[in-house]
């Protein structure tokens, strides 16, 4: 059954109300993807605010329309529902992200990725596109699902056949970014396929989302990432700074990532972020 979502509200959040009823096209897909990457943050703050989430796309859409974001299961789940409502041919896929410390790739279900088909162009003669708003420091726009190297702003990516699973794909990330790559299965997935891994990621002490409050936002020239109190910019110009106090931290969340929290949420989040960052500093010293 299709997800019932607030399409006008979602498009308004993206600043693209004129795309309601627009015929699916590569330019429109690119505009939707880029606007989503720029306006809807990749973030895990609900975990640190003690508010459990699900992988339900309709729930994720409501949170996005209300001004927040989420991580891969939320963002790609919601975006796939929007694209389907707009008439795009979208497939959800089980994937696995290979972190910098992971010795080998694996399709372990810790990531949801999308493909869109039926939109042939000079870049993608078969009409297939990789669509992924859930990698944090990943794509700004959709990539042609074609083997080879692809440039997206200041970053260079690779697409090739996966060595993990026959028929699957491998995305090789830019070496400046936060993980090595991502593999995904060719076959379609259901949102229920991600429930167990989602529960692990939002509750396990070993989960990076549980250990550190973070947010990321991609644009045409790079990506902003805040992990704990460390704010980084990676791209055409790169920088790193520590947000030294509560006011500076919440100002950065609002001005850079578009996350405006009410006083009650700030009162809960700040001591948790501060203590986690201090613990990390002690480990590094």
Automatic annotation (TrEMBL):
GO terms for molecular function: acetyltransferase activity. InterPro entries: Arylamine_N-AcTrfase, Papain-like_cys_pep_sf. Keywords: Transferase. It comes from the Bacteria. Pfam families: Acetyltransf_2. SUPFAM superfamilies: Cysteine proteinases (SSF54001). Belongs to the arylamine N-acetyltransferase family. This is Arylamine N-acetyltransferase. It comes from Actinoplanes philippinensis.
